[in-house]
Request: fold
Amino acid sequence: FGGLLSIMMDFSLNRAIEQKRRTAAIAAKELMEEIKSKKFDTLSNQNPTTGWSAIGVDTGETAGTKSTFNDVDDYNGLSETLASPFTGFTRSTAVTYVSSADLTTASASRLNDYKRITVQVSSGGTAYAALVTVVSAAVVPL
Reply:
């Protein structure tokens, strides 16, 4: 009986973890799609000397207030505690410039035409989902 009870408890625990992963993945996808719907940068064109704008909220925007965000890097540093149906989960984001030669390593140069976005969803201090994508300012002719 003890062995059967142990198997049932393991199954139940694994099922709960898998459910948290699915829920976290949905919450991560939701925010990632919102971020990707924004324009690349506040600036319409890159300044040839200084590059694109600095990562983070710009003049007229409020950190943590998504309704004021108009470009992808405004979400950098966003951390939010979620409500139903994601109660108990938190989302955090990071946005960095990256170069076309290395899309995984943050770059201090604002002359790069790529931004790497990471959305992580956690519950109780455990990360259950993370999504990463790269967006570009480059326009590809048709």
In short: The chain has a mean pLDDT of 91. Residues 2-36 form the longest helix (35 residues). The chain has one helix and five strands.
